[in-house]
Amino acid sequence: MEKFITHTGTAIPLRRSNVDTDQIIPAVYLKRVTKSGFEDGLFAAWRNDPEFVLNKPEFQGATVLVAGADFGTGSSREHAVWALQNFGFKAVLSSRFADIFRGNSQKAGLLTVVLPQEQIEAIWEAVEADPKTQVTVDLEAKNVRYGSVTVPFAIDDYTRWRLMEGLDDIGLTLKNIDDVTAFEKKRPAFKPETLPVRS
Amino acid sequence: MGKTLAEKIWADHVVRSAEGEPDLLYIDLHLIHEVTSPQAFDGLRLAGRQVRRPDLTIATEDHNVPTLNIDKPIADPVSKLQVDTLRANCKEFGVRIHSLGDAEQGIVHVVGPQLGITQPGMTIVCGDSHTSTHGAFGALAFGIGTSEVEHVLATQTLPLIRPKTMAVNVTGKLKPGVTSKDIILAIIAQIGTGGGQGYVLEYRGDAIKALSMEGRMTICNMSIEAGARAGLIAPDETTFEYVKNKPHAPQGAEWDAAVAYWETLQSDADAKFDKEITLDADALEPFVTWGTNPGQGLPLNANVPNPADIADAEERGAAERALTYMGLTAGTPLKSLKVDTVFLGSCTNGRIEDLRAAADVLKGKKIAPNTRMLVVPGSARVRLQAEGEGLDTVFIDFGAEWRNAGCSMCLGMNPDQLTVGERSASTSNRNFEGRQGKGGRTHLVSPLVAAATAIRGTLSSPADL
């Protein structure tokens, strides 16, 4: 996973709440067996509309998505995170994220930042007034900066450390694999196993 | 102070706990399907890792498989590649798989319970958000992403932050014609799609205790629609009876030991939940969604709501957009809405009891003109069972299509999709824009409402017949 320390780029205001994972990437785009190439499915239905914010020329090249509340509800498809990353997004800001989406983004290195709704609205207004506004998402300093504004955000220390180091979760767990082996020795015998097959 | 059921199961699975870190939780069962696993197996290969516990892992094909002509190769080459990839990965890593044509193939959340590998007190994960279904057995079960799938394959564990707990008390008794689907739709309408976020929901109360296992699965299944990763129901005699004698149920002395443990899986009387809510089952009517998220639901007798009456600006805007997308006008009686397609199936309502309930309503009747109905059993086993009971004949004589098992039109990933503007009454779990096909308009309903709607051609309950 790529390290995330700080990122600066322009932002896209997505003035919608409850953006579910079927909107982020519809199921018909989930058939690939790789982690790349999903950008064609990102917001596929909405992108048919020339007025959709991602299609507007002034927002091309943006790398920070600023979304309404309850972003990423619905399915567990990590493809939603990959689609955002494949498209070029490095961070998503919202007042509330669905749990599974947030977990997936933290595993894949897409930074999700929770800010109060009024701060989200302030950023929407700023980037709509000037789409060239540079927005910095600083994980080290735990704040978002644009213009003369600095907004702090909270994130748990463990996740922050893992993202800043770009650490692979599996590698971290394997360091403690002896604990797993010890736990397995104590598991009750009545717990089911899938093998051998019984019918 | 006592512990909640969720806290007990959590405590029994902590492999490692350290200050400032998530708990490392042991996973008793990992369910796999074709859509969210290929990149995880790739990751294992790249790192030279093995599947740690193939004997706690099982795969099936469900999301992307056709429900017609399953004896022929899958027509869509991209879908075929994904299914072939799952088969090759399972072979390479020694994972048990139930493929198309096998009696145990089907929706992953139908297959686990029917094999008896879903049992109380377990931790169960799958790269699918409706893994919450298995919570009906008193198992802590939740959906995970592909990175986590890889983590579980490699280590049989997951690092997780302990969720909060919410008691959902469903008091009273359901009226005839009102089902567990109506309970969960009403709960989601009450707390919203983000109301359960960060919580495990424990459904309790007389109305829950009275439900069959399959009714309980319907409720836990849709916990994620309220934003909760997991839903739970304490196991009881109904649970034990359901598990008993299933292929992978414990036998002999192990059965006794298991039941002795399972009987401890109740929230203690003095346990404290972080939040509690209550729903009165006595007052409940058949429910239906009118909008584009599962929280936008109302009793079937209601009218399409007027966004102007909604105080919260955010919610008002969402309602306005939903009415536009759904092609609805405020004030229209929901029962007057003409439905083009009725879908009976999915991990929410694709089990034998759901098919029986719908068939009971349809028997001897004919489908409404210009209406189509798809009946998609949740698993090949459910299909066989239904055929053994003659339900297939009831559906076919009625004018419905009798299909093979899979997720089908619930998510429209295979060829079973709505067309632009088409309106469905669906027993599935999500009414998101385009969920069942680009431009499709979904109303979520119970199997009973689905059946009555197929007869009348407009949203209806059996009481309207």
How would you explain this protein's 3D organization?
In chain A, strands 1-6-7-8 form a four-stranded antiparallel β-sheet, with no helix packed on it. In chain A, strands 2-3-4-5 form a four-stranded parallel β-sheet. Chain A is α/β, with parallel strands linked by helices and 199 residues long. Helix content of chain A is 31%, strand content 16%. With 465 residues, chain B is α/β, with parallel strands linked by helices. In chain B, 32% of the residues lie in helices and 17% in strands. Chain B has 16 helices and 19 strands. In chain B, the strands form five sheets. In chain B, strands 5-4-3-6-7 form a five-stranded parallel β-sheet, with helices on both faces. In chain B, strands 17-16-15-18-19 form a five-stranded parallel β-sheet, with helices on one face. In chain B, strands 11-10-9-12 form a four-stranded parallel β-sheet. Chains A and B meet through helix 3, helix 6 and helix 7 of A and helix 2, helix 3, helix 5, helix 10 and helix 11 of B.
